[in-house]
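Box S1 | Example of a co-folding query
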Amino acid sequence: EAIIRAERVEKYYAQPSENRIQVISPTDLSIVPGEIVALLGPSGSGKSTLLRMLTGLSKPSAGEVYWHGQPISQSESNVSIVFQSFALFPWLTVLQNVEAPLQAKGIAPEERTRRAMKMLDTVGLDGFQSAYPKELSGGMRQRVGFARALVVEPEVLFMDEPFSALDVLTAENLRSELLELWHNHTMPTQSIFIVTHNIEEAVLLADRIIVLGRNPGHIRTDFRVNLQHP
Ligand code: ADP
Ligand code: ADP
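Box S1 (continued) | Returned holo structure for adenosine-5'-diphosphate
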């Protein structure tokens, strides 16, 4: 029933000295439908490295990541990533940014505009479709990031420190709106995996928290959060 399962994944990076440094020691984890999982750990503990392996962006040095039981490199995984730095295309309008992943999938123009407009509405960007990213505040830019990630209806939505570049209030608002969408079942994804170094954020958002230790990153704890979300 797991959507994504990592088995004994490890990551080493080459060093100029030719010594390899191990960033992730053998790690198992899985993501099942219906859960928000937070990956919590200090800076440098390997959170982004693990996220890149889980999404297929980077290949483990050892072990394997499975997508519905198939090695991820041989499957059509349907995931999206929201980045800390938004990673929007500055030369495209808000609408064009959100349409971009649909265009990459070969969806026809009218259909992708329809879907992108609907998603912009969902994330509270109604009326901003013709703006360019540089005209928007950080919070609004990250809304575009969410819309662009969600428009393909990913099975798992990955987020790498999505609120870290925002001021405290903006982050708080965006976080609670996100949770509201999730609990209203208006967010077109089955699971959310969020990387954060903020323990409060992990506790507020997640159903399950995985804590990564440092030197080299390994899972220290994996526990359910027994809080009643509002
Ligand atoms: P986190 O996301 O928890 O801050 P990272 O996964 O970004 O951790 O990095 C973990 C460690 O691996 C850090 O020491 C970082 O400098 C190193 N690292 C990450 N990516 C690479 C890479 N492509 N090449 C070499 N070292 C890397
Ligand atoms: P792959 O394993 O598929 O070769 P990597 O996991 O090495 O891919 O990812 C390479 C990415 O990591 C590049 O985008 C690079 O800019 C970034 N990177 C390189 N060095 C570091 C570092 N020390 N810390 C964090 N990221 C790094």
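The pocket of adenosine-5'-diphosphate (ligand 2) is lined by residues 52, 58-59 (CB under 6 Å). The CA atoms of residues 115 and 211 lie 36 Å apart.
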